[in-house]
Amino acid sequence: MKPTMMTYIHEEQATLSAMLDRYPHDLPEIKGKGTWLVLATGSSINAIKSAKYYVENLANVRITVEEPFHFQHYEKMDTATDLVLGVSQSGESTSTINAIKHIGKSFPVVTYGLTSKLSSELAKTVDHAIDIEIGEERVGYVTKGYVATIFKFMLLGLYTARCNGLITETQEGEELAKLSVAVKSIPQIIDTTEVFFEKWKDELTASPRFTAIGYGPSVGVIKEMETKFAETIRVPSQGVELEAFMHGPYFEVNGNHRMFFLDTPGEARERLLLLKAYEQKYTDYIYTVKLGESSDERTLAINADVDIFIAPLLMVIPFQILAHHIAEAKGNNLPQRIFTDFGISVKSKTKPGDYA
Ligand SMILES: O=P(O)(O)OC[C@H]1O[C@](O)(CO)[C@@H](O)[C@@H]1O
To answer: Is the pLDDT of residue 354 over 90?
Structure first.
């Protein structure tokens, strides 16, 4: 039988747990490098945005995350940059490979690549390749590889903190224990999402438009909702940062709009709740994905003991499942691949994806 998104979603817990067991495995010892540039596109850039704050806080580094094509052609390299990391699950996204080649030729900076394919062009291009450790994901709408990319980057941050003496061995162990708690909660998140989908299936499936709103570390999550819903459900879907939504996009809201609010602790939460209450006057279709508990039936509560920096690893899982289920309920035949010549035609990939 062909694997589906759900096949890989159900493998997420075991995969991440095995990565934890192998830690620090193939992670490089990065010492004395404080200004990192990360280049990635699609789900890979969303994954890095999701892990960025965790890594920055722990490893005391400054991370700039950029779209590689735009960066290569229009941005100016910060000469303080002392590490460049290209992230591509397939290792075959041309923009990431080309930007790394360009930087390697023009600047004396060490390059790393994070990929699940060590034989890929990205892996061959960089000075040091790091394995995402999932093997190949044979469904193009990536799920397991997405959370594994977040996780591996988090583990890289943790190991870097340790290598630079920023945390003790005991603190490193405590951090690994926190990550383990997060990983153990995945089956419960899957179950909760299944119940949520069954309840709201009809109105979600009938939606002409989806918007997700969040802030801080959740921005990676809402951006991945945008990517995953567009790839699978194939109706306009947008992830908008909370404050950005308040400066224009709110004019678009109408009674058909389905809106997801990502409710996480933080200073910005008051504004999120104000916005949610405001929009509830204009559409009935407001849903919340919340860290913690809730008795509200339109809230999908992720009851896991994680902080806001680890939360993006878990909060994306409901969106992965909803993307799959809503697409199937709409009658989109996901195993039937479409636009198979796209990547080569527009030169966004070095080769067609090897999908089931
Ligand atoms: O992580 P990669 O392999 O560079 O892929 C980036 C993006 O490109 C796609 O494969 C589409 O071309 C997306 O599914 C993916 O998110």
So the answer is: no
This complex has an ipTM of 0.97
Tell me the CA–centroid distance for residue 120 and ligand 1, in Å.
Answer: 14
Across the range 196-219, mean pLDDT stands at 98
Going 218 to 149 to 7 to 117, the CA torsion angle's sign is positive
Domains of the chain: 5-181 (3.40.50.10490), 185-330 (3.40.50.10490)
Out of 89, 138, 223, 319, give the residue to mutate to test ligand 1, the one with the largest number of ligand atoms within 8 Å of its CB. Answer: 89
pLDDT digits (tens, 9 = 90+) for 328-338: 999 999 999 89
Atom 11 of ligand 1: nearest residue by CA position: 42
Three-state secondary structure call for residue 262: strand
Residues 205 and 328: their CA atoms lie apart, in Å, by 9
pTM: 0.97
Q: In the chain, how long is the greatest CA-to-CA distance? A: 56
Give the mean pLDDT of 193-215. 98
CA distance 264 to 316: 13
The answer to whether 329 and 321 are in contact (CB under 8 A) is: no
Cβ-contact 77, 106 below 8 angstroms: yes
Pocket of ligand 1 (CB under 6 A): 41-44, 88-90, 93, 96, 140, 142, 227, 343, 348-349
- Separation between Cα atoms, residue 278 and residue 322, nearest integer Å: 25
Q: Work out the number of other CB atoms within 10 angstroms of the CB of residue 316.
A: 29
Contact (Cβ atoms closer than 8 angstroms) between residue 87 and residue 44: yes
Structure tokens at 287: 């849903």
Q: What is the CA angle 265-312-189, rounded to 5?
A: 95
- Supply the residue whose CA is at minimum distance from atom 12 of ligand 1: 343
